[in-house]
Each structure stands twice: as C-alpha cells, then as structure tokens.
Amino acid sequence: MSESSLLNQLVESLRRLPGIGPKSAQRMAFHLLERDRDAGRQLAQVMAAAMERIGRCERCRTLTEHVRCHLCASERRDPRLLCIVEQPSDIVAIEQATHYEGLYFVLGGRLSPLDGIGPEELGLDRLEARFKEPDLGEAILAISPTVEGLATAHYIADLARGSQLRLSRIAHGVPLGGELEFVDGSTLAHAFAGRQGL
Amino acid sequence: MSESSLLNQLVESLRRLPGIGPKSAQRMAFHLLERDRDAGRQLAQVMAAAMERIGRCERCRTLTEHVRCHLCASERRDPRLLCIVEQPSDIVAIEQATHYEGLYFVLGGRLSPLDGIGPEELGLDRLEARFKEPDLGEAILAISPTVEGLATAHYIADLARGSQLRLSRIAHGVPLGGELEFVDGSTLAHAFAGRQGL
C-alpha cells in the first residue's frame, strides 16, 4: 500500500483507538470497505456528532449531549444520596452491578499536584456546594484505593467536615471469587485490618 | 445510560467493528471523548471519505480511491507476472512477506454457485482477457486450498488452457515452525503426496 492512500489513512486512524494494533486496524478497514460500508458510514456520522456535541453535565460532570444528564434530570433518582466517582465509566459499572438509586458526581480524575490536577480541575468547589444542599443525606466515595485516590478521598472528607452529611466509602478488600494466594499483599493487609464481625 | 443517548449510539456503532464487544466499544468511546477527541474527529472524517471514495481498481479489482491502484500504475512492477488472490488483504500479506514484483488480480471471493457467486462476480471474464495479453508470461494462483478455492483454481486453469501462459500455484503443506503432530490430517496428507526430492 502506498503511504498516502486513503486506505492507509483509514488504517492509521483506526490504530488510534485504544487496544487496536496494525493487524486489527487493517482487518477492520477491509471488513468495512468490502462487507459493511453502511456500518462505516454510520460510525463516521455518529463519531463526528459525538465529538462535537457531547459535553459535561452541568450538575454531575458526566459525559452527555444535554445540559443535564438523564440521571440528574430523572425524578426517580434519590436526591438524598450522592456517589462520587472518578470517571463516567464508573457510573456505567455501578449502574450495571448495583441497585444504587441516588445521584452521582464525576471528579474526572484524582488529585495529582505534580500533573497539575488540583481541586479546581476535579470540580471540588462544585462538590462542596452540593454538600451544603439541604436534601443531601449521604455521600458515598467510590474512588480507586490508590495513593492519589486516598489523598483525594481525604480532601473530600475535609470538605464535608462540619456538615450534617454522612460520608462513607465503598468497601475495599479481597474481590469475590479471588483466591487469597493471588491477591496482592497490600489488598490482603487492607482486608485484614478491615475485618468485620460475623 | 439512556438508550437513545449519543454516547450509546457511539458505543453501538463501534460494536459493529469486527472483533469489538460491548466492553471494548465502551472503552473506546470514553477514551476518545475524554482523552483524544482529535483522534475521534480524524477517524470520523477519514472514515466518511473512505466509505465514499474508495472503489475498485479497474485493472486488478483491489480497493483504491484511484482509477488504477498504485501497483497497477507503477512502472517498476513486472508485467510478465500476475498473481491471482482472493482478497485485497492477501496483496498486503504477499507484499509484506515476499519479494514478488509482479502484478495482481483480485477475485473478491471463491466460486460458490449456491451463494450466487459465479465467474462473473469474480471478474473471470476480465481475467481471461488478461490471460490473452502478449506481455504475460506466468500466472500464479494464491488461492486458499479449500474445496471452493480448489474449484476456483480449476476453473481458472481451464481459462488459461490453450494459451502460452505458464500457470502455477503457491505451495501447500506443513507451515514453517509447525509441529507435525498439530497439523491437521488433510494438510499432512497433501504435504506427503507433494513431497519433493532433496
């Protein structure tokens, strides 16, 4: 294939998708061109619209093409509960796995001063304002238990101090179905220290 | 995620790519939206152009956005050699792995009367016309050794009969690095029958 051909450009563009190597990108390009141009046209159209129109929910900061996402706009969600997550994808995971019926707040990352990610970048001023809303009864931290995640959780706990709010975090420990010998040491130590009465 | 959201549409469109399941499609969508909108915009643009403008080379039937592909248009390729393949992707594989310097002809499939794929669908009339070109010295069949592939090869051999053309096919047998015990029976039988003197 000559370097500048449109086919090559298509393969190169597909390679920028996460987890796609040169072979897969080539297979995708040939598949679309030879067997499913409709899928290619549709993907091009939806992709262009999505990149252009999807922004952040004004209330919870998740990805949406509306001013407010469908969860914040819903009247069936419980406004007394607020779950704080790092990424929009965490919302999908929680919605699929749990029966949580409250609202969300998306940080968009973890505090990391060295990378220039401070409280402002995570919208913590807006979160603090929400902590003061009278409706809110409990805030649940669902942040990854990494060093930066724990620092972020501490910072948020400080914001909530002095309010009537109940602050909790999801449990960390040995995953269900995980065999003890394959669990990393710090998870096991954490699970041990956090043991609960039976 | 509500069913009709643009984000959902993006995930669904990405799922139509070969080998992409729901989890990967979601990961791709979030990655592009949160970290690399440029890649998304570029993919949308190149994809739309490719689906619109890429057609078939008038001479060899491979995929190209030009009237003639860069191989057929090249003066450095040997016009005495013609390699007959099933798919455009086979050309990429042969170009990468071999030092073949001749031209190609893409069938676009194998003879399969039950699926409505006859000689016309494979462009065999055009191939027959090329067999009569005085320049051509050898035609090399690089078709998969399946039942339909072998039937296609036979049909093409009939087309070449009576001409001065030398017709060959690439060797079939045990793959390099393949251990005998893991090679399927018919390949092994084929390799045995086609043994060569040392």
Automatic annotation (TrEMBL), chains A, B:
GO terms for molecular function: DNA binding; zinc ion binding. Keywords: DNA damage, DNA recombination, DNA repair, Metal-binding, Zinc, Zinc-finger. It holds the Pfam family RecR_ZnF. A zinc finger (C4-type) spans 57-72. InterPro entries: DNA_Rcmb_RecR, Rcmb_RecR, Rcmb_RecR_Znf, TOPRIM_dom, TOPRIM_RecR. It comes from the Bacteria. One of its GO terms (biological process) is DNA repair. Residues 80-175 form the Toprim domain. The keyword Ribosomal protein does not apply. NCBIfam families: recR. HAMAP family: RecR (MF_00017). Belongs to the RecR family. May play a role in DNA repair. It seems to be involved in an RecBC-independent recombinational process of DNA repair. It may act with RecF and RecO. This is Recombination protein RecR. It comes from Lamprobacter modestohalophilus. The lineage of its organism: Bacteria, Pseudomonadati, Pseudomonadota, Gammaproteobacteria, Chromatiales. The gene is recR.
